[in-house]
């Protein structure tokens, strides 16, 4: 390869051609000793630092190098500072986010994560600021999105990393509200048709709650605080999250013991599922420094690695169905709307007055209201509604707790670190170089003594949390006789778990992905890394197979022919999958929802066990036939009359768009565009591909995939999409998309020798 030494350079030499290696040197304030970043040909930065905290400084510098506009947007959104650069229509979203900022004691906050959490966050923020300083010296480095929108990046403070909470995956206040609305309109049984409770648990309306008193728009502020920033110039600035958003998210992880693998080492795999976006939610980094050698994925605006491995252990996570939230309903004082009833008295609402700066206009005053339980999200003339959220407690910044466990060296240290893990609640799966494997759920676990969290409750003092459970209240598995552990967001509490005393939560993902994973791993003797990669990209939906097995005989002949001998493989090239996906999601499910709840209810998902029972119910035979006929006619119009040429992937595609697409010139829109790719799978296959049923385009799935062998770290494989960089000018902007879309992987290198051989950019950093 040609070596090009670059000290002072123009923007043309910032990015590299595939066959070149570039070398940059920068002198930075705040760096304690020499450091380097080696970027491999897949865009992964391998950071080598002289001191422990320099590693996090350089991680921040590098995150800004690749993702500055993304993390600047994340910070502005989380702190409620969008209107200052985007205008008045974002002021309401700013107010919503300010309402959910952590406002507690920072001393307790920092100690909740570990003894050096503040030092890590400070170093990371200082590294981001060092890159912003570099941009001021070399303006050509500024990501083009800032120029499109006409503002500059802001500098960070360590507190920004932990005070922002609204980007986490929380539950279950949305379910509470949906359930209350269904009970009000249709009764308890119909509410269970929407989503059953697991483990088996009676659905009982709490004493004193009127389900019909919950307004349909009660969560608008809550949803706005969690929503992504909408940059469509025609939009009104108000973003929302679908009511059934929790049903569409999930993840897979597993670990196999040495006796089940061909290498004789433990194997760990993880593919967390989140919404697909440009740039990706995930960013891969490798941090090497005294006392630190960890690689894997996290979020670009956070220090550390939450999914990956160090020299001795590997770790991966999936969401665990622990209930972190409750909606409290209060009666207002009829004589004073600033007071609400608690016990036998009225107490004042706590009010915080803030000023929201607005681009091109006068600042807007915002009054943030809080009860003793949490932020007030809605008012009526008679009632007040507030969210109690465990994630507003100290130590609950999403994923930041990984800075403790990523440095563990064995199971004991790993589990001890999980005692500090707050949020989101996760199934943590573990494997180490000695061949041990384990599974431990972790998260701040509210103690509800006289209610279950499945519905809103009166806020008058009858339904309090009595502190929190210790982590040993959650189950733990270490070196099981089965030789493997696996999770997929399913209800995985043991059968003898004392749910009445420890009310973990009752909203979980459907079990179908886990059942498919188990069916493969149970026969996994001689398991290879390639087998785990294949399982991550497996498009088999056991749910679809079960539905087909229950169909009545009297279905259209064309459907019967397509479904004959089909076993639920939702492969991109499958004609039966095209029919099933179109029929079930676009015709049968909507028809069932309308039949049960009426079209005006807007129900978009139903419990899968309820749906299976419906398919087998003779009273539904006519509806099944009618919807199958409609699906066949729809496919003939869309894909043609030759059914052999039908392909699920022709309907079910990944179509990533830059969030500023509507702001771009035609030339930039074309330059920044990414190709569409066909995808297999559904939300019920291990290769998860969640989609909007209106157009079937893939919206969420594996945000990153990783498979590691604990005896050969350089053999690890990974996939990210669309690329490591968020800068459209970078060769790493969309280079991984096709690999990911074709269910392929690239190396996740670890050893210095392998990294040096694959290095295409070397960035040398020196302290001033």
Question: What can you tell me about this protein's structure?
Answer:
Strands 1-2-32-3-4-7-8-9-10-18-19-23 form a 12-stranded mixed sheet. Strands 5, 6, 24, 27, 28, 29, 30 and 31 form an 8-stranded antiparallel sheet that branches. The chain contains 23 helices and 32 strands. It is an alpha+beta fold.
Brief synopsis:
Helix content is 30%, strand content 23%.
Can you give keywords for this protein?
disordered N terminus, alpha+beta, 32 strands, 23 helices, 768 residues
Number of helices: 23
Indicate the structural class: alpha+beta
Q: In terms of quaternary structure, what is this? A: single chain
- In angstroms, what separates the terminal alpha carbons? 31 Å
Average pLDDT figure: 94
Percent of residues in helices comes to 25-40%
Give the low-confidence spans: 1-19, 240-247
Largest sheet: 12 strands, mixed
Widest sheet: strand ordering: 1-2-32-3-4-7-8-9-10-18-19-23
SSE layout:
Blueprint: E1 2-6, E2 20-28, E3 35-40, E4 45-49, H1 52-79, H2 83-86, H3 91-99, H4 106-113, H5 117-137, H6 144-149, H7 158-163, H8 173-186, H9 188-194, H10 220-226, E5 251-256, E6 267-275, E7 283-289, E8 292-298, E9 307-309, E10 313-319, E11 325-333, E12 336-342, E13 345-348, E14 350-356, E15 364-370, E16 376-379, E17 383-389, H11 402-405, H12 411-418, E18 426-432, E19 437-442, E20 445-448, E21 457-458, E22 465-469, E23 477-478, E24 484-487, H13 512-521, H14 529-536, H15 542-549, H16 557-563, H17 575-597, H18 608-616, H19 621-639, H20 648-651, E25 653-654, H21 666-672, E26 677-678, E27 689-691, E28 698-702, E29 704-709, E30 712-720, H22 737-741, E31 746-747, H23 752-758, E32 759-767
Parallel strand pairs: 1-2, 2-32, 4-7, 11-21
Antiparallel strand pairs: 3-4, 3-32, 5-6, 5-24, 6-28, 6-29, 7-8, 8-9, 9-10, 10-18, 11-12, 11-17, 12-13, 14-15, 16-17, 18-19, 19-23, 20-22, 25-26, 27-28, 29-30, 30-31
Helix pairs in contact: 1-5, 3-10, 8-9, 17-19
């Amino acid at each position: 390869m040609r070596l090009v030494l670059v000290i002072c350079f123009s923007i043309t030499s910032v990015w590299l051609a595939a066959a070149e290696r570039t070398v940059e040197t920068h002198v930075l304030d705040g760096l304690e000793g020499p450091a380097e970043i080696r970027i491999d040909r897949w865009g992964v930065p391998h950071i080598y630092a002289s001191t422990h905290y320099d590693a996090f400084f350089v991680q921040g510098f590098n995150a800004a190098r690749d993702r500055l506009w993304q993390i600047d947007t994340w910070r502005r959104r989380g702190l409620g500072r969008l209107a200052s650069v985007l205008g008045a229509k974002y002021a309401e979203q700013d107010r919503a986010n300010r309402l959910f900022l952590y406002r507690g004691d920072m001393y307790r906050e920092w100690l909740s994560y570990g003894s050096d959490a503040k030092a890590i966050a400070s170093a990371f923020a200082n590294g981001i600021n060092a890159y912003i300083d570099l941009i001021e010296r070399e303006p050509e480095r500024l990501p083009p999105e800032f120029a499109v929108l006409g503002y500059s990046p802001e500098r960070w403070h360590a507190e920004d990393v932990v005070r922002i909470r609204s980007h986490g995956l929380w539950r279950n206040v949305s379910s509470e509200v949906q359930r209350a609305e269904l009970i009000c309109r249709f009764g308890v049984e119909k509410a269970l048709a929407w989503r059953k409770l697991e483990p088996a648990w009676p659905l009982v309306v709490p004493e004193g709650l009127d389900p019909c008193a919950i307004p349909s728009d009660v969560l608008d502020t809550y949803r706005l605080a969690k929503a992504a920033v909408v940059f469509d110039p025609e939009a009104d600035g108000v973003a929302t999250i679908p009511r059934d958003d929790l049903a569409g998210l999930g993840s897979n992880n597993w670990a196999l013991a040495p006796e089940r693998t061909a290498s004789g080492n433990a194997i760990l795999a993880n593919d967390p599922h989140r919404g697909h976006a440009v740039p990706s939610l995930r960013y891969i980094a490798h941090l090497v420094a005294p006392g630190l050698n960890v690689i894997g994925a996290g979020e670009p605006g956070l220090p550390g690695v939450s999914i990956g491995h160090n020299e001795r252990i590997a770790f991966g996570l999936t969401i665990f169905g622990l209930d972190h939230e409750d909606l409290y309903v209060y009666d207002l004082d009829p004589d004073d709307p600033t007071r609400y009833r608690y016990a036998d008295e009225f107490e004042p609402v706590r009010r915080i007055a803030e000023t929201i700066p607005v681009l091109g206009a006068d600042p807007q005053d915002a009054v943030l209201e809080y009860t003793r339980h949490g932020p007030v999200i809605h008012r009526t003339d008679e009632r007040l509604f507030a969210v109690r959220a465990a994630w507003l407690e100290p130590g609950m910044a999403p994923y930041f707790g990984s800075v403790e466990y990523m440095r563990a060296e064995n199971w004991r240290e790993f589990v001890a670190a999980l005692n500090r893990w707050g949020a989101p609640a996760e199934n943590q799966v573990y494997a180490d170089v000695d061949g041990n494997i384990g599974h431990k759920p972790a998260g701040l676990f509210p103690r509800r003594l006289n209610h279950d969290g499945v519905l809103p409750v009166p806020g008058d003092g009858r339904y309090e949390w009595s502190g929190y459970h210790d982590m040993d209240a959650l189950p733990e598995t270490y070196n099981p006789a089965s030789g493997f552990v696996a999770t997929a967001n399913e209800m995985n509490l043991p059968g003898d778990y004392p749910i009445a005393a420890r009310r973990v939560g009752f909203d979980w993902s459907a079990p179908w992905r886990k059942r498919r994973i188990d069916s493969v791993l149970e026969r996994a003797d001689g398991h290879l890394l390639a087998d785990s990669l294949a399982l991550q990209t497996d498009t088999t939906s056991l749910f679809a197979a079960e539905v087909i097995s229950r169909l009545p005989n009297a279905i259209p002949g064309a459907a019967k022919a397509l479904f004959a001998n089909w076993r639920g493989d939702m492969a991109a090239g499958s004609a039966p999958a095209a029919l099933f996906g179109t029929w079930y999601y676009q015709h049968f499910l909507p028809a069932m929802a309308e039949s049960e709840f009426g079209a005006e209810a807007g129900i978009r998902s139903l419990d899968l066990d309820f749906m299976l029972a419906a398919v087998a119910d003779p009273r539904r035979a006519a509806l099944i036939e009618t919807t199958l006929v409609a699906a066949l006619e729809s496919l003939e119009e869309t894909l043609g009359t030759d059914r052999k040429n039908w392909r699920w992937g022709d309907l079910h595609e990944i179509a990533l768009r830059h969030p500023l697409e509507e702001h771009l010139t035609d030339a930039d829109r074309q330059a920044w565009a990414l190709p569409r790719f066909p995808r297999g799978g559904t939300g019920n296959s291990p290769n998860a591909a969640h989609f909007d049923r209106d157009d079937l385009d893939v919206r969420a799935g594996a945000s990153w995939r990783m498979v590691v062998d604990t005896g050969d770290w350089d053999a690890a494989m990974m996939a990210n999409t669309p690329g490591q960089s968020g800068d459209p000018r970078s060769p790493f902007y969309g280079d991984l998309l096709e690999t990911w879309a074709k269910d392929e992987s690239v190396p996740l290198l670890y050893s210095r020798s392998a990294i040096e051989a694959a290095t295409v950019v070397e960035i040398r950093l020196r302290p001033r």
